[in-house]
Design brief:
This is Transmembrane protein. By secondary structure, the protein is mostly helical. It has a domain of 47 residues. Helices cover 50% and strands 0% of the residues. The chain is flat, with a radius of gyration of 22 Å.
Amino acid sequence: MARARNLIVAAGLVAFAAAGMAFPFYMASSKKPVIDPTKPLSPQATFRGPYINTGSRDVGPDVGPQKK
């Protein structure tokens, strides 16, 4: 009985992990955009900016003194 239960739990965990890993691919391949371009951005999105993953490359080097 314990072996059968372990197999059921393992199969459930594998199915859950597979669904979690497949979700980003599904979202990327869907035809509908995640953000509706006809509506204004939410306050949180305008605070973060539309390019959240670009980093601070456009700011340039820090010319001030570095405190440690």
